[in-house]
Amino acid sequence: MYGLWKPRVLGAWRVPTTGPVILAVNHSHNIDGPMLMGTAPRPVHFLIKKEAFVGPLDPFLRGIGQLKVDRTTADRTAITNALGVLENGGALGIFPEGTRGEGDFAALRAGLAYFAVRSGAPIVPVAVLGSTERRGRLVRALPPLRSRVDVVFGDPFEAAAVGGRRTRAALDAATARIQARLTAHLEEARRFTGR
């Protein structure tokens, strides 16, 4: 990451040094996950679509602790593995929107709330802000090479369901609370970085 782009990491001290934590990352570029893995203050295990686990990438991704997920179904193995990361005090990385898009946290899925409520792990919002400059891009989904990419960590927060309930309504309410926090962090990160 440091050879191809110019990462600027802000607020990494906010990530708890021990214990389970969920890093909730916006997703607008192909490099968002690798950029976070390369700049986070502790190892991060991401849920990554199974289609990425092909050829030589398969043993590499498994070797660095990434988790394969089938996005076409409720992948119980992936869910169990992700909860296992948190139960063992690890850091789980999640793209709450489920896939690459505008990176604005506008359409969150319930997975983040499920993992946060089920594990009790705090959520740290992360904004990865790449260059908006279109010139110089070799690949449309990547920022131009050698451009600055800001990785901004926010304050951890709890997303536990009201009354400790795990009903669908409680998860929906937790998702709404999480979305408000993530959106506020993204807006603050944009103001701070001028992105």
Write the layout of secondary structure elements.
Blueprint: E1 6-10, E2 21-25, H1 32-39, E3 44-49, H2 57-63, E4 67-69, H3 76-87, E5 91-94, H4 111-119, E6 123-129, E7 148-153, H5 168-193
Parallel strand pairs: 1-7, 2-5, 2-6, 3-4, 3-5
Antiparallel strand pairs: 6-7
Helix pairs in contact: 4-5
Compact overview of the structure:
The protein has five helices and seven strands.
Helix/strand class: alpha/beta
Main pleated-sheet profile: 7 strands, mixed
Major sheet: arrangement of strands: 1-7-6-2-5-3-4
How far the N terminus sits from the C terminus, by CA atoms, comes to: 19 Å
Cα gyration radius (Å)? 16 Å
Number of strands: 7
**Low-confidence parts lasting 5 or more residues at pLDDT below 50?**
none
- Overall 3D shape: globular
Order of helices and strands: EEHEHEHEHEEH
Strand content bin = 15-25%
What is the average of the pLDDT values?
Answer: 85
